[in-house]
Amino acid sequence: MIGRFITVLSLLAVPGLASAHVGSDPLHGSYLGGFLHPLLGVDHLLALVAIGVWLAFQEQGQQRVVMPLTLLALAMGAFIGLAGVSLPGLETVIALSVVAVGLMVGFRKRLPVWAAGIMAGGFMLFHGAAHGAEMGVNSNAFGYVVGLVSASGLVLMSGRGLGNTAQKLHQSANRIIGIALMLSGGVLVTL
Predict the structure, then answer these.
(1) 182 neighbors 103 (Cβ within 8 angstroms)
(2) Residue in 12, 183, 23 with CA at minimum distance from that of residue 103
């Protein structure tokens, strides 16, 4: 297990892999580009998995509210970025979102639904803005955002499944996942 963790951290040390924001990618402004982005961008993949794992130990009613809100905020952020609105500290907030949610997972912190929605939605607004800012003017913005939200929803559900499985395996499993997320987010902050 430690060997796998070191391998993941080593991969995160390569800046090109840790940041999926590549404006020169020909797929970037297409449905397929949007769909692949959360799967291939380590920072976004970690953030989505982290939120999914964290949602696994929230109440069922919260999951039904926060998950769609998270995806809506991601889409809104993408269109905000496409409109040219620049959010301060974009990449730093993205990396810190992994650290923050990792802490929430590690300590199994539950929040009221309004706070959970603000936290997850706020983080995803920044993630979406990063995507939107990089879409070209001639790109298929709608197709890209639909692909982005589709794949992000699948990753969120996978993270929730990971969290559910971890809870069934051992009580400390979520702590281990939380620590791994915090460390991974810390590496992203330094890139």
Answers:
(1) yes
(2) 183
- DSSP secondary structure string, 120-158? HHHHHHHHHHHHHHHS-TTS-HHHHHHHHHHHHHHHHHH
60 — phi, psi (to 5°)? -55, -40
- Looking at residue 147, its pLDDT comes to 93
Calculate mean pLDDT across residues 174-187: 88
Question: With 0-12 CB in 10 A as exposed, 13-18 as middle and 19+ as buried, what is 156?
Answer: buried
When mean pLDDT is compared across 17-21, 32-36, 45-49, 87-91, the lowest value belongs to: 17-21
**Under a CB-based contact definition with an 8 Å cutoff, are residues 159 and 66 in contact?**
no
Report how far residue 191's alpha carbon sits from residue 189's, in angstroms, rounded to the nearest whole number. 6
Q: What is the pLDDT of residue 131?
A: 83
What's the chain's average pLDDT? Answer: 83
Q: With contact defined as beta carbons under 8 Å apart, do 24 and 141 qualify? A: no
Q: pLDDT band at 62, cuts 50/70/90?
A: confident
Tokens describing residue 163: 């969290």
Whole-structure pTM value: 0.81
Q: How far apart are CA 126 and CA 41, in angstroms?
A: 15
Kindly give the residue spans of alpha helices, DSSP state H, lying in 30-169: 31-40, 42-56, 60-82, 90-106, 113-134, 141-169
Looking at the predicted structure, is the pLDDT value of residue 182 above 50? Answer: yes
